[in-house]
Amino acid sequence: MAASSVAIVLWSASTWRSRQLGRGLGIYGCIFGPVTLLALFSGRLNLDAHGFGIVIFGQAVWFIVAGTLLWRHVNHVADAGM
Fold first, then answer.
1. Predicted confidence (pLDDT) per residue in 19-40, tens digit
2. What percent of the chain has pLDDT over 70?
3. CA distances from 58 to 21, 28, 48, 68, 80 (A)
4. Is the pLDDT of residue 82 over 70?
5. Which residue in 27, 58, 68, 82 has the fewest CB atoms around it within 10 Å?
6. What is the pTM of this model?
7. Domain residue ranges of the chain, discontinuous segments joined by +
8. Residue partners of 9: CB distance under 8 A and separation at least 6
9. Residues 6+ apart with CB under 8 A from 22
10. Cβ-contact 30, 23 below 8 angstroms
């Protein structure tokens, strides 16, 4: 969970900086990742079904939005090249 949160933060920082996929995705990841890490390492996040489920749901939202934006971006670039 910690490694995937770090990965989301790094990808979000890159997305926010490049502005190709939207700033909202970058902002969401740059907030959600550190909050998850802080809750995990401070002991406030229990890794039971509820705590783990909340984190997985938050990460799934990020992955689905990122995938959708990447798919639209690739299709837009492909359409522009034709």
1. 888 889 999 999 999 999 999 9
2. 90
3. 18, 10, 16, 16, 33
4. no
5. 82
6. 0.81
7. 2-81
8. 29, 30, 33, 34
9. 15, 69
10. no
